[in-house]
Fold this protein.
Amino acid sequence: METDQVGRVLGTEDATPLEFWFGVGDDVAVQLDDVVATERRLPGGGSVRIYGVVSQVRARYEGARYDSDVFLIADGVLPAEISEAAQVMATRFEPETFVPPLPGTPVRLAADSEREEALFFDRMEHRLPIGLSRSGEPLYLNLDFLDGRRGAHVNISGVSGVATKTTYATFLLHSLFNSGVLGTRGTNTKALVFNVKGEDLLFLDRPNLHLDDEQRARYELLGLPPRPFRSVRIFAPARPGPSGAPQTAARLEGVSAFFWTLAEFCSEELLPFLFADAEDDRAQYTMVVHNVATQLKRRAVPMDQGGGVRIDGETISTFRDLVGLVSNKVQDEEHRYDWAGPAIGTGTINAFLRRLHSTVRHVERIIRGDVPGAERRTVTPLQGQLTVVDLHGLHDRAKRFVVGVIVRRAFEEREAQGSSEELLFLVLDELNKYAPREGWSPIKEILLDVAERGRSLGVILIGAQQTASEVERRIVSNSSIRVVGRLDTAEAGREEYGFLPGTLRQRATILKPGTMIVSQPELPVPLVVEFPFPAWATRAAEADRYEEGAGDPFDDLY
Amino acid sequence: MKFSVEQWQPEYGVPAGPDLPAAVPPVDLSVEVPPRGWGPIRPDAEAVESVLFADGVRRVDASVWIEVDQGSRLGLCASYAAGAVLCRADSAEIVGCRVERGLFTAVSDAQAISTRHARYPVRPTPGESPEELWLGIQNRMADLEAEVGLDVEADLVVVDGPLSHHRALPRAVGYVKTQHVRYLPDELTPVLAGLPVGRRTPLFLVGGPRSGFSWYVRIGSGGGSLGGLARCEITADREVAEAARLADRVTATLPRFASKEHKDPRAPQNLYPVGGLERVLRHRLGDQSVLYRSLRAAAI
């Protein structure tokens, strides 16, 4: 056999243009995801190069007929030969003549330019490193399908804890910012990351203590620097009380607080974002919500200091007071017609109020008018390259409010600018909470807007969830890039994962942390990628205290 | 050479095989133990470490009619193969495997038949009856059997079937599964019937053209009182004591290889290594329908 030949196409299994098996030669090991090439001569001259990816490898005894024969063979009683065969899913035909490879044809490992051709890397003008193959070679994504030119958005699915969804999302951001693939657009490209669980994303600017040389070498293979994110701004919800300081446990320095003033709450009509649960969708009081929001916008006069408002002569400086005022207005016979709307029954008003009162506890620290000099709290992704908004300590209703308001604001700014040259990446985990498959909510609407129109505005959603089957279909289907980490066995069988061939579906149930399956429109076969250990800390214990290049502060003492 | 292929598939017009009942040769029952003292013998030896099993398979791919001046005469296009398995403590390995084909015929100026897939060189036979043609195949296969695995080091060589072509090999043992000939008188039948598994009868000397020491061994249980019995034979050109030692070693070694009923219709006598080897050899003969088709194509 030639040195790079690994076997020959089988004739005992059907060879088709889409899928074929080859017998693995002696002294050769073929593993899943290996990229192979074979050739087929055509009548009348010329030949077709057929490329593919190994999707399954099997070994068996030839000569054994019963399961128990294996013991006889091991005991030296029954002669048998081990035969290994590998299944290949075809990726590319060059030129495009869809013929099967002929049985007996040699199959070789595709290396260098052949590998590039097999995986369409040669056709990618802008290629983004997305991880390494099992054999340690870089794998790429066509940026055109991410930045809106031909497609946009990433959707990541996987079981919490082992699927490393958020880490992969941040790795993609790292690759986007550092691979140079964005060219001149890189300087103005921003990312807005919502930290929904734990404090994982609060240390993106800190080097990871556990990053060893082996992992650094993996970054080098990808052409990426093994360093944390550089321009990071972190926002955490304000603490209750007049200080307005950010509330975080693990990270104390370099964090700004965010909250909305009552003036903003009224003028920007943010009230509907408090009614974004599935049950709100079914309730009768949607009309009341919008009428109240309109009244607040019309009647609220901002105070000079602290962000409070005056409504009908009454000074309001806390959310609780505001709720009290709304409560009076909608229940008062005189004002009810204006505030709640015509022909609204008492039952509906009471339902609205019950719902409104129950939010007070959860949001009063992020909607307030009692903090003097509150200019730092505005969350805008335009300040740093990467903005992290910490939501993990908030109640679900408050989380929905924050995500809805921030995404809407970011999206509206983009709409006003109208340019898609600079990209804005939105990273949001637990998408199923914000855009569930069933029902309607203002947040789902804004996320759908991003999914459907964001592409042309340069707003790219990197969404993640445990189960794609629970997320609004149009959000998932608008994502050009689908990523899957470890999946629950039942989930892997659902139609949302139809883009995974059978063997990969099965494989998705055993993926290790750090391994993902990435599907992109150009490649007919999803790629299994391994991404390096994060170079940035993902929790307090991993965070190196000193910024890169700062040196040892004790140096001067010696 | 003009020839035509018999329309009937070869299995139809073929005799059962050349193993015709032979006349009972003279037997001397008293070489090791006098007949009165016959009983099961427990082998006084350990099983050997390495055993080489040799076997062959044959198949008629097509019957052909070769055109001669006076009409047409029969020939058999046959494929046959011989191979050997070397069994050690932890491995069973096919160490030799040869496949040949031939046109067996008594037509003196017959020529080889070349088809798209195989070539059948002429293998002359003395007679032209179907039985004689079959015997020609059998003999050629046995010759091939004697050639494979000759250079392999093994403590024991077990030949499937009578010793015939392996007589030159000192460690060779013929292993006969079927009992077409009754060598023992009726009064010794109870000894055979009561033979426990892993025991042998005393040696007896068979005379005639295929002379040699022989004994029965019970290889496994099942199949009635005479089930699980096999007859072994070795050449007679040695002392009785030496022959008995060899018989002991063989008797101690073989039961390990006995097959089970659910895996082999000829269990337990058809030994696992031989069964496995036969399957491999049959496979190596190639697909019969493909060869038959190519012979028909070559005859046009």
